[in-house]
Amino acid sequence: MDYRKKYLEFFASKGHAILPSASLIPENDPTTLFTGSGMQPMVPFLLGQKHALGTRLADAQKCFRSGDIEEVGDNRHTTFFEMLGNWSLGDYFKQEQISWMWEFLTSEIGLDPENLYFTCFRGNEELGIPRDTEAAGLWQKLFAEKSIDAQIVDFPERDGLQGGRIFYYSEKKNWWSRSGVPGNMPVGEPGGPDTEMFYDFGADRKLHENSDWAAEVCHVNCDCGRFVEIGNNVFMQYVKTEQGFEQLPQKNVDFGGGLERMAAAANNNPDVFTTDLFKQLRESIESLSGKTYGDRAEETFAFRVV
Ligand code: SER
Q1: Taking Cα atoms as reference points, which of 189, 169, 193 lies closest to residue 179?
Q2: What pLDDT tens digit does each residue of the chain (306 aa) get?
Q3: What are φ and ψ of residue 139, in 5° steps?
Q4: Residue 172 is part of a domain; what is its CATH number?
Q5: Closest Cα to atom 4 of ligand 1
Q6: Ligand 1, from 62, 194, 253, 261: best to mutate by most atoms within 8 Å of Cβ?
Q7: In a domain, 16, yes or no
Q8: Separation of 209 CA from ligand 1 center, angstroms?
Q9: CA 256 to ligand 1 center in whole angstroms
Q10: Which domain, by its residues, includes 79?
Q11: Which atom, in ligand 1's list, is nearest to the CA of 36?
């Protein structure tokens, strides 16, 4: 199934103009050497400039994140990837975004709601940014429509799932800006709380011969690979100023989800390198090296690095 096409068609049906991927080399933007997220070419429009194609936009943006280079070799990190994105430039907000995402994940690409988990922003009084009870409540209602009683847990640190499906985390996890947490943002930079979406590949799966997910105290943000973040809905409504955070002139949505990871979730296989996107590369390395992808852990690691 062509998930890229499905995503773009879905958002076109919700009134979005579909844009081509911008260049991997940012234009008129000295902040990074490479485009690292779908929102990067959208920054002027998130800050209030009018976009010629309107207030609902979507694309599949080629991205390069050198910051992830040390992670490459596991089941889910790549430095180059395609980010499926949609934006509301002061148009729709949490209600529409969350229900469309749910529809896309559960009806369009057929993910089982039993395998879905979400995180939301816990709030920070010092910054004057409230807890995102609205996003958590919207996810909970959607679960209820599928007869799933989704508990909301104020997640302390690393104590496992505690019977929850929706978790509140601090700005370390549920705040998004190009510079990370609020304290690192330069004046003029937009940012906001986010709600992240995770797919559970199941505690009984084994990622490689040495892994045992069932034996780990695992939670959605754990690094073991059982849970994979498949997308991030940022409610980009703030801008950093000398005085602290102020509301942007418009409330925006900035969604980004990894095409490779969504395909892995739809295939219910935690290894993104087994998706069709990497087929030719896997086969070329197999014929050059005489090794078979997936046979042995160190070789699998080496394939992924190449
Ligand atoms: N900007 C957010 C991200 O890169 C969502 O698009 O994760």
Answers
A1: 189
A2: 699 999 999 999 999 999 999 999 998 888 889 999 999 999 999 999 999 999 999 999 999 998 889 999 999 999 999 999 999 999 999 999 999 999 999 999 999 999 999 999 999 999 999 999 999 999 999 999 999 999 999 976 666 788 899 999 999 999 999 899 999 999 999 999 999 999 999 877 665 555 565 656 688 988 888 899 999 999 999 999 999 999 999 999 999 999 999 999 999 999 999 999 999 999 999 999 999 999 888 899 999 999
A3: -60, -40
A4: 3.30.930.10
A5: 37
A6: 194
A7: yes
A8: 33
A9: 5
A10: 3-274
A11: 4
Q: How far is CA 236 from the centre of its chain?
A: 15
* Domain assignment of residue 124, yes or no: yes
CA distance 129 to 185: 15
The residue among 297, 272, 210, 234 whose CA lies nearest residue 68 is 272
- Indicate whether 279 belongs to any domain: no
From 181, 229, 232, give the residue whose CB has the most ligand 1 atoms within 8 Å, as the site to mutate.
232
Residue 244: inside a domain, yes or no? yes
Residues with CB under 6 A from ligand 1: 37-39, 85, 176, 232, 234, 254-256
Distance (Å, whole) CA 180 – CA 178: 6
Q: Could you give the number of structural domains in the chain?
A: 1
